[in-house]
Amino acid sequence: MAEPTPAAPPDVDASRRRLITEAAGIVVSAVGFGFVYGLAARDAGFSPVEALAMSTLAFGGAAQFAAVGYVAGGLAWPGVVLLTALLNGRHLLYSAALAPWLRDRPFVERAAAAHLLTDESFALTMAHFRRLGRADMWGYWVAGIGATFIPWNLATLAGVMVGGSIPDPDQFGIDVIFPAAMIGLAVGLISGRREVVAAISGAAIGVLVALIAGPPIGIIAGGLIGPAIGLLVPAAAADPPGPAR
Question: Which of 10, 41, 42, 237 is the most exposed place for a label (fewest CB within 10 A)?
Answer without folding.
Answer: 237
